[in-house]
Amino acid sequence: MPRKKDTITLSIPPGTKEKLEAIARRLNILWGKDPSISGLIVAIAQHAVEVGKPFTLDFNQVNALQQAIKALNDAGQIGESQTVLTLLLERGNLDASIRQSLLKQASKLLQAWRSQIDEYRQKQQPFYLFYENSQGEELQYTVRYAEPRFFDKRYYLLIWCEETEDVKNSIPNLPELWHNRTLIFDRIRLIVPASGEWREGLDHLKVYLHFQGWMVKSYERREDDLEDETIGDVRQVVRRVVNEFWLIREVLRYRQDCVIVSPQSMRDRLKQELLAMCQLYDIETKS
């Protein structure tokens, strides 16, 4: 059944519609390819976006916070330094030269995390990692394996950690992947050494994919592909999967030309995504 929605009529001055559409486009609130004013209003009502101007910092305030960043770096408190720097970049009304300087500092901080993690990897040293996710939640992981990996035009940190509670509800049928995480470097807040043993690698699932149609010849072999052979009109690829998110994103992009054949748990995970999309677009499905 279609969902019931409230309807309102707005009286706005000339030119306001275009301004609202520009804001919606900037915030990536779209209906198809077009900016959605309705979506923008809903996002404001749900406090998903903030309205108003960011706070303005005068010269003395900016200078004081820059000195704080330097002091935190010198003290080895890279996570705290990153927090202050991100605050300046995201919330401050900065001129171009100061913003460029802070962006360079942010790059150096990310490299500092990379260097420290690379050192632990070489020593096979487990470590505690303190992380802030995209929802502002502070998480702690006991890391026993880590490796940087390139996805979607940026580097991520893949880890094997002891903690599982934060993902059990999101992927309950994939316990094989509960210990794996994909983290963003600039959300790391602190790293300190831990005791215990280092692992040899990440957990993984062996997933069978069938590419059809134009993808039989177009598919480019990946680093994690274990087998790749063409059988009749189907190209069968067996892949070592350590994170279900990236696999599902890829399969959805190829639509009907890529099918997850097994295991059933991964097929069910994709079905959940498809059913959720059907509900969003009021498509009725058989129970």
Automatic annotation (TrEMBL):
Residues 235-277 form the WCX domain. InterPro entries: WCX_dom. This is WCX domain-containing protein. The lineage of its organism: Bacteria, Bacillati, Cyanobacteriota, Cyanophyceae, Chroococcidiopsidales.
